[in-house]
Amino acid sequence: MQNRHAPQDTAIPVHGDIIGNGDFQYRINSHWGKLDAETTPVENCHDFAIDSQGRIIMVTDHPVNNFIVYDKQGNLLDAWGTEYPGAHAIEVVNENGEDFIYVVDCGWVINRHWDGKSTDAWDSPFNKVVPQAGFVAKLTIDGRLIFTIGHPQTVAAYRPDMPFRPTDITIAANGDIYITDGYGSDFVLQYDSQGRFIRCWGGHNNTDSRYNLNNTHGIAIDNRQVDNPILVVSSRADQCLKQFSLRGEYLGCIDTPGAWIHGPVFYGNHFYAAVCWSDIKGKNVDDSGFISIFDSANKVVSNLGAHPAEYIHEKLQPMCSNWQVFKHVHGLCIDDKGNIYVGQWRANQSYPIKLEKINS
């Protein structure tokens, strides 16, 4: 019997292959997002959003261009921006008929003093990426700056020695902004629609451990119960998603054993979540990412690029990549036909992949 936890040679996605099961089968289109790397390069394809025109906007941390805009056929429409060297997450929100971009710069930037070798020497001044403080910016859809949200020390929410390297953002119906500080101090920070600070929660070493967050990488609002919106926040290193009210009150936890999971992307009654690494024997293993799909009861109904989920006595068993499709899944979005657009971290500067939904 094959050992489901044994790493194998990471395969390049095969164009035309079908992955998934049941109602969630997809054909891999690995040609979809390819561009000329000389003129429109990428470093990491970090995240996506779809605007009201149906355009797919991707953020990358390449110093030449931070935003790449595609149509649904994968044609390049635009590429722009050098002001966001740590571009990590994007949200497009329509406010009174006008689209706006919220972009999260996580503070990790390409190092101009890189020694050409070091990629995991995080404290070295010669590593490929080095840290600085991150920020969030609100832009018009064509990239004009409206305002920024900087280090929370400026509103007395953090001490000056606390790092701020935000990783994701979600916007409530009233315009409130929720930010995860997943590479910094692991708080969720809430601001109003004008960027004024309201509150924060999370971090480490809380008296009530339910509020602890550990590498809180992603966040989204679950609006499936119309009158009861819920924040869903990843605690990636704890392999779970935590649920909070919009005021930061703890509500519950969705365990995802084996998966260093990102925040959810909601589509109908399901949500989809990128997994950057499989956790094997207590370690996040390289080139072991996948996508998990959850139903309305928050149970995994399909894994794309991983072994099928298994429940024993209603408890989800550790999940693991099958090492056949992805390296490190980082961001995704879903169009109105159910197709998934997938970006990866540390995938040799590869462009995004389209997973084309096969209707049953």
Topology of helices and strands:
Elements: E1 18-21, E2 24-29, E3 45-50, E4 56-60, E5 67-70, E6 76-80, E7 87-95, E8 98-105, E9 108-110, E10 129-131, E11 135-140, E12 145-149, E13 168-171, E14 177-180, E15 187-191, E16 197-202, E17 219-222, E18 230-235, E19 240-244, E20 250-255, E21 259-267, E22 270-280, E23 283-285, E24 290-294, E25 300-304, E26 311-312, E27 315-316, E28 329-334, E29 340-344, E30 353-358
Antiparallel strand pairs: 1-2, 2-30, 3-4, 4-5, 5-6, 7-8, 8-11, 9-10, 11-12, 13-14, 14-15, 15-16, 17-18, 18-19, 19-20, 21-22, 22-23, 22-24, 24-25, 26-27, 28-29, 29-30
Notes on the structure:
The protein has strands at 18-21, 24-29, 45-50, 56-60, 67-70, 76-80, 87-95, 98-105, 108-110, 129-131, 135-140, 145-149, 168-171, 177-180, 187-191, 197-202, 219-222, 230-235, 240-244, 250-255, 259-267, 270-280, 283-285, 290-294, 300-304, 311-312, 315-316, 329-334, 340-344, 353-358. With 360 residues, the protein is mainly β. The protein has a single domain (18-358), classed as TolB, C-terminal domain (Neuraminidase). A 5-stranded antiparallel beta sheet has the order 1-2-30-29-28, with no helix packed on it. Strands 21, 22, 23, 24 and 25 form a 5-stranded antiparallel beta sheet that branches. The model has no long low-confidence stretch (mean pLDDT 95).
